[in-house]
């Protein structure tokens, strides 16, 4: 239930109507029942235990990820640029680096793929890509491929005058491989339509077989170890489950980007975003729990909270308010990416609060991801501050399932103890832990972190 807020008091009142969620099962991730809207059924989230898959990466929960590109990267000989940075990426503590789409594409950014087996792209040649991947392997940083399989641009016109035939290249599909709602002769889409280009019909068994073959090739022949699934809303999550099971990436993430809840007429972000994070969790659950997802809920809340509304960072049950608070081992937390920030700026994090954002996600449970621009383009000071936070996270063994005890959550101050090993605060409110067992580990503008 969404709690109405008194404008005279920016801190949301306690929800005295809803009962606390029930919890059954074992481990840090359990089966939760969350209160629904008034007069509605309780929404259930079934958390499937599949940690033994993905090479133990999800079970380990100690991933620290880098998005290693932005929207303009294709202009700068990117594979060579990244190869020079691999030693620093490894030294900084990153376990995996998400690379831009490696295949031939009609658009230079890589998100309108055509010939999936051609690895000559605007980012560089196949030879340069393989050299980069070898360097990453040498330094023990896993390479994450950006998997764009919601849509594919054809080579010639077919049914309806659309470019929905793939003659003359590998995977020479015809119009049956394209959904009927995007100009093909296949079945209806199992997700949202990506307008303007042919959308792939994943219900076709030969299409799935070909995609599995291509993913396996990327893994076994090219050297990618992790996958990021682009526009995951566009096709059923059950297909992602099949692709992950068959191609066996060590770790995978889905981009299930849904809209948060805003209230007109001012379109202020609602305090309660439970429905938003529920939809992301439902998607993860439909993959059999094999695939993590970007925690867009945490991003949406955090980028409003740092503007002087830090009370948003505690939900009505006293938990972190994003996917992180409900299923932390599958929540990839981040504050910016190539779509939300960079030169696109579709949903940007306030630039003057970026380090507060990193102080939050790098000390909290979930699987944090750092954006290339912040790490390499915003100056040495920010680079070094982020590295220090990563160092603390690793040294204190904060992981995806670490506990969170929120001590303060008001307009200008958020403070929490994580894993009983790290204490942190963000906001301009004055605060420090009362116990002498805590030692200041690092601090910066509007943030501080202590450890024992």
TrEMBL record:
Region described as Disordered: 1-21
Primary enzyme class: hydrolase
Location of the active site: 230, 255
InterPro entries, per the entry: A-amylase_bs_C, A-amylase_pln, Alpha_amylase, GH, GH13_cat_dom, Glyco_hydro_b
Enzyme Commission code(s) on record: 3.2.1.1
Keywords: Carbohydrate metabolism, Glycosidase, Hydrolase, Metal-binding
GO biological process terms on file: carbohydrate metabolic process
Domain Alpha-amylase C-terminal beta-sheet: 394-452
Keyword Hydrolase belongs to the record: yes
GO molecular function: alpha-amylase activity; calcium ion binding
Complex formation: Monomer.
Protein family according to the UniProt entry: Belongs to the glycosyl hydrolase 13 family.
Protein name: Alpha-amylase
Protein's organism: Dioscorea zingiberensis
